[in-house]
Design brief:
It is a single chain. By secondary structure, the chain is α/β, with parallel strands linked by helices. The chain has one domain: 4-Layer Sandwich (Metallo-beta-lactamase, Chain A). The protein contains 11 helices and 13 strands. Strands 7-8-9-10-11-12-13 form a 7-stranded mixed beta sheet. Helix 10 crosses helix 11. The structure holds zinc ion (2 copies). The site of one zinc ion (ZN) has 4 residues, from loops.
């Protein structure tokens, strides 16, 4: 009988914890540069208090944001309602969705999109203005009634180091430097809300400091490259990948040191190996809670 009481209490506690957890993570893109019809380019949204904080905007993420807002009831992800975008680095699979996000229905925006990221963001956005020139001119100088003619623009804040912090209400977002080959700086992010700590690795090779950045994470969203696939790559590619991405066994080692509440695998480079091989590889060295993230998964 005592055991039954304990079990009931535990179930109630688990359910209450879930209900109290207001922060939601929505995977808006779990892909890589390798084309995959089921996966948009990198993008993760953290939603707290009806506000979305989006990390990276790979190609296809806007379509997923629309689906999340209109079919999953996460209204904060309606494209014109997204106000805060953070970039890990400027590789194409993390940024090609930016023009789509900034320009989708822009004339109906009431708040400009704000962009935070590494050096190079402003010149990239200047390129987007150039790209959108005809659209802006047609909509603002023609017969279309546009009350906010500057809403296609972004407020850009670029940084060449990780010595900054974003605070908004009870949400704090801190970048940290990661190891992504030639790219400097490349950021990971640690997001703290009143009920959760979420750590996003961005694209990174394994490095010693990562465990410290990810310490105490309720959810660790980490990139990974399949070891079986990596071992079959030509030597030059193996050398490149070793400096830019984290292998399954390295991720298992990291997860063991961090022991996050949940480890979500994303940005999975697996080439001709089935994607599930990566999950098996990580699981062989780590026994904690782990999921292979799919587009539109919510945690
Ligand atoms: Zn990438
Ligand atoms: Zn990258």
């Amino acid at each position: 009988m005592k055991q039954l009481y304990l079990k009931t209490f535990f179930i109630l506690l688990t359910k209450t914890t879930y209900v109290l957890s207001e922060t939601i993570v929505v995977m808006l893109g779990t892909g890589t540069p390798v084309p995959d019809p089921a996966r948009a380019g990198s993008s993760v949204a953290v939603i707290y208090n009806q506000q979305a904080y989006v990390f990276d905007a790979g190609p296809g993420m806007v379509r997923n944001a629309i689906t999340a807002s209109q079919q999953k009831g996460i209204s904060a992800l309606y494209p014109t309602r997204i106000e805060y975008l953070f970039l890990t680095h400027l590789h194409s699979d993390h940024i090609l969705g930016i023009p789509a996000l900034a320009a989708t229905y822009w004339w109906r925006r009431s708040k400009q999109l704000k962009l935070y990221g590494p050096t190079g963001c402003q010149s990239m956005i200047n390129g987007y203005y150039c790209f959108l020139q005809q659209d802006i001119s047609l909509r603002t100088k023609g017969s279309q009634p546009v009350s906010n003619p500057t809403m296609y623009q972004l407020e850009v804040e670029e940084h060449d180091d990780d010595q900054w912090e974003f605070r908004h209400g009870q949400v704090s977002i801190r970048p940290f430097l990661v190891a992504h080959g030639d790219i400097e700086p490349a950021f990971g992010y640690r997001i703290t809300t009143p009920d959760r700590v979420i750590v996003i690795s961005g694209d990174t090779a394994y490095f010693d400091g990562m465990a410290e950045h990810a310490k105490g994470a309720d959810i660790l969203i980490h990139e990974v490259i399949c070891e079986a696939a990596l071992n079959r790559q030509p030597q030059r590619w193996q050398q490149y990948f070793n400096k830019t991405h984290t292998s399954s066994s390295q991720l298992a080692k990291l997860a063991k040191a961090v022991n996050p509440g949940l480890l979500a695998l994303t940005h999975i480079l697996h080439y001709d190996e089935p994607i599930k091989t990566v999950l098996d590889e990580v699981k062989s060295g780590y026994s904690g809670r782990i999921v292979l993230a799919e587009d539109l998964d919510c945690y």
